[in-house]
């Protein structure tokens, strides 16, 4: 962790933001990558230099959604058989059936909720593509989930004290709480957007 922190500290702001984008991108392609750690430390470094919370968040979002849509495209192109070969220990026939049922009955909401589950969130984009969730709907759902999740992490990093280890310990110990808070906020945003949409339709009638 200290080596990673030292490396990030030595980067100028443009390259620091690039590192955050790359880590967020790679999380979707190589799920074991500890992207949350890299992003938290990168935002921590940015907060103590000339960077900004918004810059760290935007860089993370660009990388994360870019990687998610790449995997969505691969899932859409190659389908469930490819996913089962790519993730044989996770995408079993039973798991694929559960995803299919959840996505078919819950649609966008299932995509949002699943992105907050650490064990399966990297599988959501390719699974959404393989199961025929529309690209725009999938991108919006994943953007909402990732935006809130990484927004909270970046805010914690910018408000942390001078100890990066304490920041990582806080994120690790409170990950469930952060996930639930992010999920609740995301659901609130979705409900608000739906309410605005219905209100606008009512005004037009």
Provide an overview of this structure:
- With 205 residues, this protein is mainly α.
- 80% of the residues lie in helices and 0% in strands.
- It contains 10 helices and no strands.
- Helix 2 packs parallel to helix 4 (53-86) and helix 3 (35-47) packs antiparallel against helix 4 (53-86).
Helices and strands, with pairings:
Elements: H1 2-9, H2 13-29, H3 35-47, H4 53-86, H5 93-106, H6 108-114, H7 124-130, H8 135-159, H9 164-173, H10 175-204
Helix pairs in contact: 1-3, 2-3, 2-4, 3-4, 3-8, 4-7, 4-8, 5-6, 6-8, 8-10
Helical fraction equals over 70%
Tally of DSSP helical segments = 10
Query: What structural class do helix, strand and pairing data support?
Result: mainly alpha
Strand content: under 5%
Shape: globular
